[in-house]
Amino acid sequence: METRIRRLALATATLCLLLAGGCATTREAPAPTGAAVVAGLNLDRALEDRILALDPDRITPDDVKNTLAKGPVPRIILVHGGIYPVHLAMESFGLFLTGMGYPEARIRHPGDGRWSHSPYEDSAQIAGFAAWAYERDGMTPMLIGHSQGGIQVVKVLRELDGAYADRISVWNPLADAAEGRTTIEDPLTGQPRPVKGLTLAYASAAAAGGAALILPNQWSMIGNVRTVPDTVEEFTGYSIVFDTWAWTGGVSDDNQFRAAGRARVRNVELPWTYNHVVFPVSSDFPKDPAVRSWIEAYTPAQAAGPAPLQAEGRSVLWAADVWFSVRRHWCLEAQQLIRAHRRAVGVK
């Protein structure tokens, strides 16, 4: 009897192992990270050539639709303001970006699908999420904030600069938890690197400052909100000429964003007619042919003339300027990734 029981137990264990093995073969392979992202980039050679041939400062609507959108796309992290329900205004801006051709999945949160982050979220979590995204995409995400969300963008940059801690944990947005590590494998070098010191390609803050700095979560930003650390290559600060919320009564040296070191910082003055609270509302812009045409023709160096009357008093200048920078850095990040891939596989 004992022998029969042992045989039955062995057969049962063997069957369980076989079933487990069968189940394992149906599981999705984990997403590549680090150097595997670069080496495993799988694009048509003709598409790679088209992306590499693009001029980042002259991206056309056709370039967006038929070239950039078919290749690698960096993640955009939007950070909304702090008063409910102002997050809906940033959601509208997310819809503006998708209406102009940016893939929706690269804006929405990969865990819960929300359009934007709260300025009350721990800045270390957003910094850790940015590192998580870079390790998987081979491209650093772009940070775009409005109002208190603009303060939070600069706070995240300071977080990456080590202003608050020597170590920053990688934050997994799918699990909504820290991964228990403070380093990633840099996709472009294949070497381990800390989250601290990660440099993003582009970030922007609009209508940041004012009474929001009185809130406890932003006390550390008093005197720091307009100083941009070296953890971003290019930063644009937007200020409404007369903004009672952000406490900007005209543009002056006091409310200009400035680099702490080598970051390239640009300041853009927005008309006083812009409403601080709702000016990110822009989802209808791509649907109006005249407004869309104006936005697509806009460059920071040469404005596209007066905005269409139907957009007068609204945020068309801000939307156009951000869209120009988004397209530019989308192109630059994709080109950098493709060049890294060709070096990794020995293709010229």
Order of helices and strands: HHHHEHEHEHEEEEEEEEEEEHH
Structural class: alpha/beta
Instruction: Kindly give the count of domains.
Output: 1
Number of helices: 9
Oligomerization: single chain
Write the CATH architecture name: 3-Layer(aba) Sandwich
Number of strands: 14
Describe this protein's structure.
This protein is α/β, with parallel strands linked by helices and 348 residues long. It has a single domain (37-345), classed as Rossmann fold (3-Layer(aba) Sandwich). It is 36% helix and 15% strand. The protein has nine helices and 14 strands. The chain has helices at residues 2-26, 35-39, 45-53, 61-66, 87-99, 123-137, 148-160, 289-297, 316-345; strands spanning 76-79, 116-117, 142-146, 171-172, 177-178, 183-185, 192-194, 200-206, 227-228, 232-240, 242-243, 248-249, 258-259, 264-270. It has a six-stranded parallel β-sheet, with helices on both faces. A two-stranded antiparallel ribbon has the order 4-5. It has a two-stranded antiparallel ribbon with strand order 6-7. The longest helix is centred in the last third of the chain and has 30 residues, at 316-345. The radius of gyration is 23 Å and the shape is globular. Mean pLDDT is 88; it is low at 1-28.
Descriptive key words:
globular, 36% helix, 14 strands, 348 residues, 6-stranded parallel β-sheet, disordered N terminus, Rossmann fold, alpha/beta, two-stranded antiparallel ribbon
Write a concise synopsis of the structure shown.
By secondary structure, this protein is of the alpha/beta class. The chain is 36% helix and 15% strand. It has a single domain (37-345), classed as Rossmann fold (3-Layer(aba) Sandwich).
